[in-house]
Amino acid sequence: MDTAVIVVTVAVALAALVAIVAVAVIVGRPTAHVERPSAVLSSAFRRAIGVGLDSGTWESIEEALLEADVGVEATTHIVETLRRASPTEVGRAVEVLKEGLVTEMSARDRSLRLEGDPAVILVVGVNGTGKTTTIAKLANRLLKEDKTVLLAAADTFRAGAMAQLGVWGVRLGVRVVGGQEGGDPASVAYDSVDSARAAGTDVVIIDTAGRLHGQRNLMAELTKIHRVAGGERVDEVLLVLDATLGQNTLVQARQFSAAIPVTGVVLTKMDSTARGGIVVAVERELGVPVKLVGDGEGLDNLQPFDPVRFVDSLLENP
Ligand SMILES: Nc1nc2c(ncn2[C@@H]2O[C@H](COP(=O)(O)OP(=O)(O)OP(=O)(O)O)[C@@H](O)[C@H]2O)c(=O)[nH]1
Ligand SMILES: [Mg+2]
Hints:
By secondary structure, the protein is an alpha/beta fold. A hairpin with a 7-residue loop joins strand 7 (290-294) and strand 8 (302-304). The longest helix has 26 residues, at 3-28. An eight-stranded mixed sheet has the order 3-2-4-1-5-6-7-8, sandwiched between helices. It has helices spanning 3-28, 37-51, 55-67, 72-85, 90-106, 131-144, 161-172, 185-199, 215-228, 248-259, 278-286, 307-315; strands spanning 119-124, 149-154, 175-177, 203-208, 236-242, 264-268, 290-294, 302-304. It binds guanosine-5'-triphosphate (GTP) and magnesium ion (MG). Magnesium ion binds at residues 131-132, 155, 161, 207.
């Protein structure tokens, strides 16, 4: 091959590569105008306003609730309650729906229990749901309440996981206890509680792996971490669920709560395309309250879950 041919071949190859990358970037870009969770239900009511309340209304409300990820069981219950109340106009139907949801959700205690000395919060969940980020946000909240905090990097499995928590620790100015990569996560948990007790630290937050060699190993490991961190004396076992995963989060919720006594749920990524209805489904399925909601990647993007505001936003007019 002479030089000219080589130059042309390389140029064509480069052009092709640039084109492939450009297409990948365009395809990978999130679509604009994603329907917000709140709009899903209100559009069902708008349809109803057009035709009045009839059996079609119940069907479209049922569909809308399912679309908003409320789940089959909760949806059936809600629509039945609504039918029994037999509202005669749409405004009243919305009120009945709101009252029903708020009553159901307000019955739960959503405060964080922090009684131990030190108080121990164990954070669990599938990889990528937002555990480590949530821990940093939670530490930030506790620091603002003048509490002292220690972070335990008990995700010794994923390369870089301990360093990731370490970076947050430096940023927040809190101590991070770690171990050897590939080492025993339970001993990291034990050491951190021990060290916090010795130093008089108020709260220990334990980060865990989202994936090990197999699901069964992960659950066995979490059980062990829970035991050495104090067992029943662990104040909170927070299960972090990614709200954008829809009904898959329910499968995860079942698996974790079967292995470990989950005391609260943190629902992350509610700022993205999540359909908020999953909150209703998760609480019914687990019988455990959603205590905190993540609504962004920043340190201030963690809010206590407020059922009244949540129901309002689920049903508000767009
Ligand atoms: N938009 C948005 N992104 C979030 C939120 N919470 C976490 N993330 C992002 O989700 C990604 C995964 O977060 P991590 O905190 O690393 O998740 P993890 O559960 O610790 O993951 P593993 O350590 O792999 O198990 C990161 O890019 C976070 O910035 C949230 O509330 N909203
Ligand atoms: Mg992590």
